[in-house]
């Protein structure tokens, strides 16, 4: 699945907001209302509703019975008891940034997803300097050769940032990974290409595939796919089949990444609870 939802265009009344919040487990509700900004609260609600919907759709589990746990590093995962030989490694990754919330899921390989958008950066050159230490020399050169204007500089910075984060999120690392260990490059030298390659600790990883998509209003999203054996230990324990045959893995990894399906709030609300609720958009 590749799902995308524009959170900016969702303007719930306070009762609609409370209703959507009530569809989540109480601890998650508490977590969400602690965010000060309404936009953050909205993005988190949408992200968590999307995750519930994924489990419901893939495993046909009633909403009330869905449990989504997290590794100690924070990666959400499907309870291993739901996994089986035909859906061995159902895993997913979500991101909420700027105007968008998105989710990507896979049944066999690992998947990571990250979105980057503008945060009102008036001085792109000054802004990106703060992140110099996270990039290799090659990456920094590529970012800075993006073009003359600040827009291109920011776009290229966002592209590189979401490549790195999509890898981190696929393997489940979270905070603590030295981002320069994962160097991204474009084989044909076109830094605006949509299929970057990964060198990890200096070694090219042809078993990882990355796809960049340009979304509206200067947002970029990167989806990564890689072998289950690369998951960190805590996340690996949640998967069913780590040793996947090279042939089946190569088949999945080489497929072109599907386009995102754009959803609305009405698509991610459990239908059975909708009675009496209208105009949630
Ligand atoms: C975990 C992390 C990858 C989240 O990324 P983010 O850009 O802050 O936020 P996003 O909206 O893209 O992603 C949030 C989602 O990441 C997921 N996530 C959290 N921890 C995760 C982990 N260890 N692995 C994979 N996914 C994780 C969650 O699903 C979360 O959404 P949810 O709470 O609604 O379920 C990020 O905070 C992080 O740790 N980065 C480390 C990289 C680093 O060192 N950066 C330098 C800091 S300046």
Automatic annotation (TrEMBL):
Q: Which Gene3D superfamilies match?
A: 4'-phosphopantetheinyl transferase domain (3.90.470.20)
One Pfam family hit: ACPS
The record ties this protein, via SUPFAM superfamilies, to:
4'-phosphopantetheinyl transferase
Domain (4'-phosphopantetheinyl transferase) ranges: 111-221
Q: Does the keyword Transferase apply?
A: yes
Query: InterPro entries annotated for this entry?
Result: 4-PPantetheinyl_Trfase_dom, 4-PPantetheinyl_Trfase_dom_sf, AASDHPPT_N, P-Pant_transferase_sf
Please provide, in alphabetical order, the Gene Ontology terms of the cellular component aspect for this entry: cytosol
Ribosomal protein listed as a keyword? no
Q: Which GO terms describe its biological process?
A: lysine biosynthetic process via aminoadipic acid
Instruction: Supply the alphabetized keyword list.
Output: Transferase
Task: Kindly give the PANTHER family that the UniProt entry links to this protein.
Answer: L-AMINOADIPATE-SEMIALDEHYDE DEHYDROGENASE-PHOSPHOPANTETHEINYL TRANSFERASE, PHOSPHOPANTETHEINE TRANSFERASE
What is this protein called in UniProt? Answer: holo-[acyl-carrier-protein] synthase
Q: Per the UniProt entry, what species is this protein from, by scientific name?
A: Ceratopteris richardii (Triangle waterfern)
